[in-house]
Amino acid sequence: MRASGGEWLDSIRRRAARPRPGWTRRPARALTGCAALLALGWPVGPAHAAAPGLSDSQRKEAEFIYFDRCSGCHGALRKGATGPNITDEQMLKKALPELEKTIYEGTDAGMPGWGRTGEMTRDETALMAKFLQNPVPIPPELGLEAMRASHKVHVPIAERPRKPEHKRDIDDLFGFILRDVGKGAIIDGKSKELAGIVDTGFAVHIFRASATGRYFYTIGRDGKVSLIDLYEKKPQVVAEVRVCLDARSVDVSKYKGPKGDFVDKLAIVGCYWPPQMVVLDGQTLEPMKVISTRSSTYDTNEYHPEPRVATIVASHADSEWVVAIKETGMVWLVDYSDLDNLKMTQIAAERFLHDGGWDATQRYLLIAANMRDQMVVVDTEEKKFITKFETGIKPHPGRGANWIDPEFGPVSATTHLGEGLIVVYGSDPKGHPEHAWQIVREAETAGPGLFLKTHPKSNHIWTDATLSKEEGANQQICVFRKEDFEAGPNCWQATEHGKIVHFEYNKAGNEVWTSVWDKQGEIIVYDDKTLKEKQRITGDWLVTPTGKWNVYNTVHDIY
Amino acid sequence: MRASGGEWLDSIRRRAARPRPGWTRRPARALTGCAALLALGWPVGPAHAAAPGLSDSQRKEAEFIYFDRCSGCHGALRKGATGPNITDEQMLKKALPELEKTIYEGTDAGMPGWGRTGEMTRDETALMAKFLQNPVPIPPELGLEAMRASHKVHVPIAERPRKPEHKRDIDDLFGFILRDVGKGAIIDGKSKELAGIVDTGFAVHIFRASATGRYFYTIGRDGKVSLIDLYEKKPQVVAEVRVCLDARSVDVSKYKGPKGDFVDKLAIVGCYWPPQMVVLDGQTLEPMKVISTRSSTYDTNEYHPEPRVATIVASHADSEWVVAIKETGMVWLVDYSDLDNLKMTQIAAERFLHDGGWDATQRYLLIAANMRDQMVVVDTEEKKFITKFETGIKPHPGRGANWIDPEFGPVSATTHLGEGLIVVYGSDPKGHPEHAWQIVREAETAGPGLFLKTHPKSNHIWTDATLSKEEGANQQICVFRKEDFEAGPNCWQATEHGKIVHFEYNKAGNEVWTSVWDKQGEIIVYDDKTLKEKQRITGDWLVTPTGKWNVYNTVHDIY
Does domain A5-132 bear CATH number 1.10.760.10? Predict the structure, then answer.
């Protein structure tokens, strides 16, 4: 019988009470935090006669691995998104050895070789091949009551400090993901000191600063939201709640105007599973409203059972969250000013939406439809689709990068998951309509990467090559100059171990911070002007540092 | 393997080509048109060990009957709505003889006794009891491509007449449902002549006149929409399409104003299954957009897999359809002015929404949440929930009735499915705020009924007692006087056979038309002033007449 949401949460609490796997285990296990919480032996339909048998424990093991390694691209229901459809119906068309090989070796189409990278053993790839020929287990739903059961306010609002209990500049704090230990590090942007480490969900995807900058919200891949109060003497989780079984996005309400003062009043979480978004009280994380994303694809108008929430950004100009729905290719503008009479605009865009952010004026959302190799432009003022255009193989802008090009005026840019390419396009339809949403420049980077970053006060655009399979390329940083983009990047090897991933400026816009993503990771701080290394932050606590966010830049969406 | 939408439609076409059951068969069979089209042996999960076995042909037979008799109240997924949850999990808690008895005899809670009324045999109630202890078959989805395959334009727009090809007053035509033969009759309101009979979907639920009054749209329970052109010499179906497997509602776009001229440009169908609404070209019925209703309940915010579209009404003042979503208890205002950048307001109301209509100003939607014994008021101008209040056992206003009460000013009213009761409430928050949405009068009718009706030019309110189980009560009509409501109704027996159901005024507002719902039915036309019978319309063609709509009154929402 299917576990109800309540039973599921009880089960989570029981499991969470068990000792967590530490670094003595292989990464593949250390990463299974959320999967371990999720794997309950979900109900499955009858297997095809040709499906290989699996024991209960094998099935659970495979469910662990699937959620860790596969569901991000292929979806919980295996119907495909960034990766192809891998339901049993499809997988039974292939022979087991062929499937095993694909899982072990990967493909040129972007499938990682999980065996080759050491993240799965031969036994595990063999197990996964069999698992994929079996029917898809259906994960449970999660409603308000079950969410409320997981809701904890560790420090009630009345007991929180009225002003900062420390001398640090809150605006210049950084939040760092310590991905594989389910923790976050708060680091002082001025002194580079560790201000504190907090427990978060597992494999946190992002930090978002609240509109005032007082709080950080983190969202774990396991759907756990943590509210971190930066006023406390040591940064502290003051509330938490689990609202999804799988999640990637969180944001806060930023609007203040005729419709009301919503600054830090509400938060929103975007779930992968169940396919829904959840509105929370911004100060206590109490779940308030569930908005299902189950709906039809923008083009063929077919029902999709698993439209996942990719990215959420909060409007500065209106009481709206901009929510990208991956599988259906829709951008939903969700007006949070009246949750009981909820207004939405559902904008047909392109499949499959991934991440994106604002142009410099914060009017246009620029978002990747990465399986269509396109960038999509949505006008949040007129609340409509503007255009989409091809850039390269799987554009991945993160939140993006905006600057003034000497020739083309205001431009924006993206890197690519599928090739070492930065593509620059005009993003000033008013001042430079002839270049708006047209590609104006492109250049090679060190290899397929995840992020690029700049700052209005900087002359530089920083790019990583995290996904490169070439020896050493993923340890490189390449920096372009706005003044002379065509001269090509200045590249260097920044680390001898791990991979370079993600950049963030300090508040002043004169330093760039990046991560050496490794079991024992590092943070490197560069002088943005000279590109010289200023400092390396190390420590036992620096386990798998990945994304990082400066409070000021995140509050104001400076990128 | 599950049938795809395309395969399903092929199957429909094959089945539709077979001779249709005529009146030589029992009603239970004659009604199975849509179920016959639907029953494809949908995929089911593994049965509980205790579930009684069913052969494939028994399962199909039971699926037929279930869709005909049970799904309206219990839902395709059997999770309950107007009736309780009857999934196998619940039904296995009961013994088979107990279940059989309930199905055969009915209950006081409103469950019809299908054996008692002669609509199921002992064998059939025994079969249904077993069927309910087996897992729920999941009906297929239906996307745009599959819908398009069923789309037929019999008369292209260019070939349609430019003006009426007959001398009848189009505004005074009536559309009559001939429920059990899948046909519609168009009758001349002046001469009382039969203008023509057209093929429609099975068990049509409603006719809606287009905004200009030129067309009638009908929606069959089988999800088939028919566009009937009243300009043709004989009324003719000029286009048809099947967009649901089970449906109840259809409407047209009526708005003309700053956002554009949408008069008759678009139509919308509300489906029961798949849970969705579908926007069509208003002139050709070409399917354009599918909007899923799968979403969370308004109160507990739990995901519901089958939120059915109950009622749709078209706003006269804005480019919006007002769509009631039954299971989630939400009213969605769907703005059709830009389908690619679709604006919606989702208003939390009450479960389970059924039917309703406008107040006299056409600003407020008054709709029944009939399992909560409440009427709900939604303000479509401010786009928000106003209030809800208890009236009686299962209010059922149809579209409702609006008049001026000598003491309380503008009022509206509902009858009830669960008791012979008419309840009157103030509906003029501006002029009579002290009575607005307050019950001001109530009175007994002949018994539990379906409809009430009045007209601005009339002094009368007409009520039926169609659902009464008392001998003869469902053959009565009771009429109240607006001037002296408290004097009680004038009631009389209007027929010796069948049941009286549903009223409609002619265009002038001086005649009331009602149906004798029987295999060989009749139409009775009354003089509204004297309550005297003016004419009885009979004929071989008058098979199971039920609902009827006058073009003028439907265009202008006069009730």
Answer: yes
